[in-house]
Amino acid sequence: MEKLESVVIRFSGDSGDGMQLTGTQFSNTSALMGNDLSTFPDFPAEIRAPQGTVAGVSGFQVNIGSSEVNTPGDEPDVLIAMNPAALKANIGSLKKGGTVIANIDAFTDSNFKKCGYDSNPLKTHDMETYKVIEANITSQTLEALKDSEIDNKSKGRCKNFYALGITYFMFGRDLEPTIKWVQEKFKKRPDLVDANVKALKAGRNYAETIETIVSNYEIPAAKISPGTYRHINGNTATAWGLMQAAEAADLKLFLGSYPITPASDILHELSRHKNFGIKTFQAEDEIAAISSSIGASFAGALSLTTSSGPGIALKGEALGLAMIYEIPLVIVNIQRGGPSTGLPTKTEQSDLNQAFHGRNGDCPLIIVAASRPSDCFHMAYEAARLTLEHMTPVMLLTDGYIANGAEPWKLPDLEKDYSKINSKVTTSSLEEDGSYLPYKRDEKLVRPWAIPGTPGHEHRLGGLEKEDITGNVCYDPENHLHMSKIRAKKVALVADNIPLQEIEGEDSGDLLVVSWGGTYGATHMAVRQLQKKGRKISLMHLKYINPLPKNVGDLLKKFKQILVPELNMGQMVDILNAKFKCDAIGYNKVMGLPFKISELVESMEGLMDGKGIQNPADFS
Amino acid sequence: MSEKPVYKKKDFISDQEVRWCPGCGDYAILSSIQMAMTKLGKKKEDIVFISGIGCSSRFPYYMNTYGLHTIHGRAPAVATGLKLTNPNLEVWVITGDGDGLSIGGNHLIHALRRNVNLNIVLFNNEIYGLTKGQYSPTSSVGTVTKSTPFGSIDEAFNPANLSIGAGATFFGRTLDTDPKHMMEICKQASEHPGVSMIEIFQNCVIFNDKVHDEYTNRKTRDETTVFLEHGKPLIFSKAKNKGIRLNGFTPEVVTIGENGVTEDDLLVHNEKDPTLPLIYTQFRGLGLPVPMGVFKKVELPVFEDAVVDQMDKVKEKKGAGKMSDLIMSGETWEVK
User: Fold this and answer.
1) What CATH number does the domain located at A2-218 have?
2) Does a cis peptide bond (omega within 30 degrees of 0) precede residue A177?
3) Measuring CA to CA, which residue among B218, B169, B164 is closest to residue B192?
């Protein structure tokens, strides 16, 4: 039995083939067996794109390891191709020498045509660098289920479990967790339980009998820090972080949202938990979604709205309103490929400029970004903490990659680390003359939050410029200047209420890699690889984006070169260069895909070796 | 609940200087609504006025209650979030024909469809005032304005028909020149559980003066308007001898005492009737007197109450949620 440190597997098939489910089962089982892991679902924008075409291919990649795993892996070691289109879509990224398990029942002339192959691609020279296992997955599944009572169509649907069975044998996975899951899932349909379990076992047995072809690998449990773990994806973690914040602030959570990929799962998750006193409102459009959240915030809720780039664009005017009101509001942007409708199901980090500038007037927001699926819990909590403590809107940026990606999450000590947020709710802020001054500020320039229902504190808020302290409408030139400065300074002062920036590695050296948001897994692994080789390279991964931690400027000065890898055409790099004049260089990719560790390592080495780098987004 | 608070009109007057044009119909509406507030039995701190953008939308600044001046067209959506969060509040939405029916049309119809317990007051002056005189979605075809120097071409909205079509459970119409009637309609709207839509014929003295003159002028109004009262026949005219009769589904004007017509032949107003309110919306187009008063008042489940109800049921079944339990739910594993 061969011991592996890590292995990357990609399940791929038609979008109706159940590949997401198959991949999830493989991941969950591996987590239970003690592996560290990271997953990446990759599916088409269409629910059921034309069958058999490359456009309709749905994939799920999982990287499991016996040591730290931070990304779903650059290149799959094993590709499960349920049809020729799946092979075509993925063969380019398969590792040289990797294994393809092909469902040859689907390798027919008509399917070749659908995805643009002239003949059987498995028989070409291109395939000689790979190990190909031709398995009759469909027909063997049907054969295994010939005595089952369920109809033929349902039998065919079990083929993903047959494929799963093959991989379970290859990597020594325990069948039990999946069998338990099937039993729970189809509690009321014992016939389906029986069929799926039979298909799973048949796949496993098939792999075992052709042992000469299929190697049997072992991936020992990873050395992971002790604790209780669970699986979590970014969107669930975001929802839970906000729920925790509501509990910590002793406020009710309100979500106004409009369905949009890839943000809808937060709406779904929060809608499930009505017993937490959460109110979710599926509004008539994006503008109504944020507007209802503004109303809820005025009424005293911890209020949020969730969307993706196109929806955030529509919310722009209302964002300005929340900002000039100076009310708490969390806006979550699960970034996707843009501009316009762009690439709805693909990941990107190109809404950073939108977060900074996507409103009329001078309208700074607090901006924070999550670094990985489980970190969404922490940063969502932080977004809520900052908006409640500073009475100004906070935008939380995540992206499709970490929103849908899942990883094991070491459960935090909620009581110790996530239990107290002091909101500015007041019921007793009257002046001696009995008046209430809605814009009377504390030393952090934060105003009180009196909510309707509180006697004596009746007041009006408006989108018109207001006089400081009283909040009365005021067009006075000096006042507008004063208020614009107050609102900017108020956001700047948040820097006193966030942690100082940390650096991974030495705090000086040849190259500082500055990354932000959802690319952490790849940048961390790339930098670590080079550190192991003895290179003088460090990583500064930003999660507090506006304001930046106070020490960022000083840290940047201590390195000979600065590289900023981003999944956009170069937004953070421009911000850093404008703010710190630090001559940072960008490495930018907008292909709807996350960074590969290998491409980052190459660009970092290139820079340090004086060879320069090839920036994929360079158009000069 | 403690006993009903006692207020005077001045309790609802804020310290802000009112800045509408002299002679604007909005003054009369402000005064009537301030007066109406004293009759609702609601505590001042539980009242919220929410507006969008436009002349009418300055309204909240002048009310000594909680208030929000929001952005163009979005007041119903803001109000929905507010009401969902605290269903105990008495929420008034102030809007105009441009704010409510043009840029904010989508939010208005959805607030009506959901039956959120809001009182929505539409100041209809058939013109854009704050932007200095462009035609609005309620301007009659042929209206000459700066943006339609040769007359407007597109058909106008019928706010009553639109509201009832969108599912308003209460629709009332009143006039800025009739404070007593206005106050009565506001009171009924406030008492109605569910969404209440009030259309006020309001005069813009600068850009569309006398647009409703036919219905407000002492000389003509008795012949051009008919006041609806639940359970009573539709009678109008100075001599109180004219009425509305239904001929099939078509309403027509008849004279009592002529051609054998008696009061018994007249249409009797029923605000619970599923069809009559829609027929009233057509009177103007048919050249009949324009109905004033409550067209429709029916009780249906109120959105925010249903939301709370569903939440309570889930809580009853699952027990109050706790985060420390939630994170441990489903599959977890120990690493030692």
Assistant:
1) 3.40.920.10
2) no
3) B169
Tokens of B240: 């109180």
Indicate the pTM of the whole model.
Answer: 0.93
State yes or no: pLDDT of A1 exceeds 70: no
Using alpha carbons, select from A187, A206, A96, A189 the residue that is nearest to residue A151: A189
Closest chain B residue to A254 measured between Cα atoms? B85
Contact B271, B295 (CB under 8 A): yes
How high is the pLDDT of residue B1?
Answer: 47
Q: How many CB pairs under 8 A join A and B?
A: 202
Q: Please state, in angstroms and rounded to a whole number, the distance separating the CA atoms of residues A326 and A329.
A: 9
CB–CB contact A284 B107 (8 Å): yes
pLDDT in tens, A37-54: 999 888 777 777 788 999
Å between B248 CA and nearest CA of chain A: 38
Indicate the residue of A274, A317, A456 with minimum beta-carbon distance to B311: A274
Q: B123-137 in b/e burial notation, b at 16+ Cβ within 10 A?
A: bbbbbbbbeebbbbb
A434/B contact by beta carbon, under 8 A? no
Give the pLDDT of residue A214: 54
Domain coordinates in residue numbering, chain B: 9-216
Instruction: Inspect the interface and report whether the beta carbons of A300 and B321 lie closer than 8 Å.
Output: no
Instruction: Please provide the DSSP assignment of A51-87 as one string.
Output: TTSGGGEEEEEEEEESS---SS-SS-SEEEESSHHHH
Chain B CB contacts of A456 below 8 Å: 45
- DSSP, res B63: B
The Cα–Cα gap between A270 and A252 comes to: 12
* Residues B156-198 pLDDT 10s: 999 999 999 999 999 999 999 999 999 999 999 999 999 999 9
Task: Name the segment(s) of chain A with CATH classification 3.40.50.920.
Answer: 509-608
Architecture in CATH for domain B9-216: 3-Layer(aba) Sandwich (3.40)
Of the candidates A276, A283, A303, which has its C-beta nearest B77's C-beta?
A283
Helix (H) / strand (E) element for A256: namely strand A253-257
What residue spans of A493-571 are helical by DSSP H?
520-532, 552-556
- Domain range A230-417, CATH architecture: 3-Layer(aba) Sandwich (3.40)
List the CATH code of the domain at A509-608.
Answer: 3.40.50.920
d(CA B287, CA B223): 11
Residue spans in chain A of domains classed CATH 3.40.50.970: 230-417
